[in-house]
Amino acid sequence: MFQTAKALFLYCISPVHMGAGTAVGLIDNPIQRERHTDYPLFAGSGLKGAVRHRAWTALNGANDNGLLDRLFGPDAGNTELHAGAISFGDAQLVAFPVRCTRRAYVYATSPTALARTVRTLNLLGIEVPWEIPEVKDNFCRIVTDGAPVESGKPLHLESFEHVAVAAPEMNAIADWLAGHALPSSEAYAFFREKLKHDLVLLPDGDFGYYVKNATVVEPHVRIHNEKGTAEDGGLFYTENLPPESLLIAPVMASPERSGKGSLRAEDVMKIVLQGGEGIPGLDGQVLQVGGDATTGRGHVVVTTVS
């Protein structure tokens, strides 16, 4: 039974490839997506594995007191199996960067994405002081001050046009996300301000189109080790979630279940998020998730909300 829980916002600062493992279309290496919405996601198992690997690296592979096993659970080959004390849920999409003719890009979201964000926060005991406005087809909702365009004017995203309508509710949503979902350090001051002004609420259908068709798709070529030339049939395409994407995931902790120590749920959460026992904390730090780490992919910055 989990006794404490927090929310993690994950802000992509590089393209991120959390692979689906199978290809069903033109893209050879697609990213993970939800079956019912087609929204990108990060599976909780992948997040947990990335956090464990980060801790393992910090400890230089040492696990003398079994701390990694006590926190995350032992490897499958271990004869003393037990559940880990920390659990990560799937990271769901909150906002997605969409190219804009006025300000490089906007943070696009939708009623469904925001409603699921509110639900996740509420389930973790976090109340939010905002409501989600309605948005009609061919329209979008913007903040009342400092938006990319004035209310009633067209907003051009990718090759499409949406009539922008200001809504006071958007101010509260944008301000809250800017203050809670991004790190408080000076390095992210520009992006906090941009999120306050450039959050755009789209109809679910339009948002769904962008998150499916505006990801980063990169060509890769396998090189022959001896010849140094491209191998026959070596061209393949890999999909990435673009930088500036924002996701939310729950993290929950229980007392350790190994029977070899006395870590409380609060201790487990503190070690993982704030650091301790030689393990650096996650809060406000960069975590590498997914594949293609050697080409600079998979960097997300983690922000904790409780």
Feature tags:
306 residues, alpha+beta, 9-stranded mixed sheet, 3-stranded mixed sheet, globular
Explain how this protein is built:
α4 runs antiparallel to α5 (189-198). The chain is built from 7 helices and 16 strands. β13 and β14 form a beta hairpin. The model has no long low-confidence stretch (mean pLDDT 92). Helices cover 25% and strands 29% of the residues. The protein has a domain at 96-214. The chain has 306 residues and is of the alpha+beta class. The chain starts with a strand and ends with a strand. The longest helix is centred in the first third of the chain and has 15 residues, at 44-58. Strands 1, 2, 3, 4, 5, 9, 12, 15 and 16 form a 9-stranded mixed sheet that branches. It has a 3-stranded mixed sheet with strand order 6-8-7. Strands 10-11 form a two-stranded antiparallel sheet.
Radius of gyration: 21 Å
Tell me, rounded to a whole number, the average pLDDT: 92
How can the largest sheet be summarized? 9 strands, mixed
Shape: globular
Keywords: Antiviral defense
Organism: Methylocaldum szegediense
Domain CRISPR type III-associated protein: 10-300
InterPro entries: CRISPR-assoc_RAMP_Cmr4 (IPR013410), RAMP_III_fam (IPR005537)
What would a concise description of this structure say?
Residues 10-300 form the CRISPR type III-associated protein domain. With 306 residues, this protein is an alpha+beta fold. The chain has helices spanning 44-58, 67-72, 111-123, 168-180, 189-198, 204-213, 265-273; strands at 4-12, 41-42, 86-88, 91-100, 104-109, 139-142, 154-157, 160-166, 199-201, 216-223, 230-240, 246-253, 275-276, 279-280, 286-288, 299-305.
